[in-house]
């Protein structure tokens, strides 16, 4: 594959960053449309949704870069120019840190500006998942989050030969691998399209967000089965890795969002007190026999 998109002199434009940036731009443009659809019968302001997306994006990027600086501070003190190379580093922990920072910023902004939480989440679900699809395409080009070794004769295996894929992402060179990033990109793209179709017809606010959480959790969990486990953490003696644990939490969160609210039922004492009053009212409406 091609971890370097092109050069401008000594300046390198990585494929991962370029493809991911394209996905971000498309997701931002889509968010304006989904905000108008989700906010048809609410006070959801598409301009405020745009501001929320921009602030959350910067919060996610800043948190991920700050974690990289802290983790590599001893080396960066000796070689400050290496700070520019941190943009080439990709790791599940960075993604988790950025996601948490972005989600926290989005919740803060929505609360501060009194945005309807469920309608806002519905508007953001399809763009976010579309962005994840492009992020995985960029990872495929760069060799980040590479798959396990493919079986002999596997027809659509990918083989990385560019040394930059090994330097930036640790991808093994000259080994046929499962294109797990393409699997994930296809799953996310399909889910984004389904949510876009469902959004105008949703029965209850929050349904699209709940389906997005559950669908993305399932996509992450299943595709991790073909992803190389190196550096992804493990639990239960390797039965689960870090992203799979996050995927389970996403499915649980989606199920909670989709759960029907329980209608309040009167207690036994309240029902006993109300029964005589209801009987008296009924007899008075009938009148004398």
Structure description:
The protein is mainly alpha-helical. The chain has a domain at 4-185. Helix content is 63%, strand content 3%. It is built from ten helices and two strands, in the order E-E-H-H-H-H-H-H-H-H-H-H. Strands 1-2 form a two-stranded antiparallel sheet. A hairpin with a 2-residue loop joins strand 1 (4-8) and strand 2 (11-14). Helix 5 runs antiparallel to helix 7 (180-198). The longest helix has 26 residues, at 46-71. The radius of gyration is 25 Å and the shape is globular. Residues 267-271 have low confidence and may be disordered.
Shape: globular
- Number of distinct helices: 10
Task: Bin the strand percentage.
Answer: under 5%
Helical/strand content category: mainly alpha
Q: Helix-strand pattern, N to C?
A: EEHHHHHHHHHH
As residue ranges, the low-confidence spans are 267-271
Radius of gyration, rounded? Answer: 25 Å
Please, what is the average pLDDT?
82
Widest sheet: strand order?
1-2
Main beta sheet: strand number and arrangement?
2 strands, antiparallel
Distance between the termini: 91 Å
Tally of DSSP β-strands: 2
- Helical content class: 55-70%
């Amino acid at each position: 594959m091609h971890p370097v998109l092109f050069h401008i002199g000594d300046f390198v434009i990585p494929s991962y960053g370029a493809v991911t940036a394209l996905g971000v731009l498309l997701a931002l443009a889509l968010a304006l449309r989904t905000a108008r659809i989700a906010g048809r019968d609410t006070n959801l302001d598409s301009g405020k949704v745009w501001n929320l997306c921009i602030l959350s994006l910067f919060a996610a990027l800043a948190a991920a870069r700050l974690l990289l600086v802290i983790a590599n501070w001893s080396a960066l003190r000796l070689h400050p120019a290496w700070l520019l190379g941190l943009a080439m580093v990709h790791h599940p922990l960075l993604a988790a840190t950025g996601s948490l920072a972005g989600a926290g910023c989005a919740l803060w902004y929505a609360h501060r500006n009194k945005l309807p939480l469920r309608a806002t989440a519905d508007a953001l679900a399809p763009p976010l998942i579309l962005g994840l699809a492009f992020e995985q395409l960029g990872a495929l080009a760069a060799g980040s989050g590479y798959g396990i070794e493919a079986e002999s004769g596997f027809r659509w295996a990918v083989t990385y030969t560019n040394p930059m894929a090994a330097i930036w992402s640790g991808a093994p060179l000259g080994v046929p691998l499962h294109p797990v990033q393409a699997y994930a990109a296809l799953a996310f793209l399909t889910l984004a399209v389904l949510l876009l179709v469902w959004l105008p017809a949703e029965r209850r606010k929050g349904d699209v967000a709940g389906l997005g959480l559950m669908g993305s959790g399932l996509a992450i969990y299943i595709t991790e089965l073909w992803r190389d486990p190196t550096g992804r953490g493990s639990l239960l003696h390797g039965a689960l890795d870090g992203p799979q644990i996050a995927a389970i939490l996403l499915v649980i969160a989606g199920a909670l969002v989709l759960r029907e609210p329980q209608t309040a039922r009167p207690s036994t004492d309240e029902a006993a007190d109300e029964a005589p009053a209801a009987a008296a009212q009924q007899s008075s409406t009938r009148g004398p026999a």
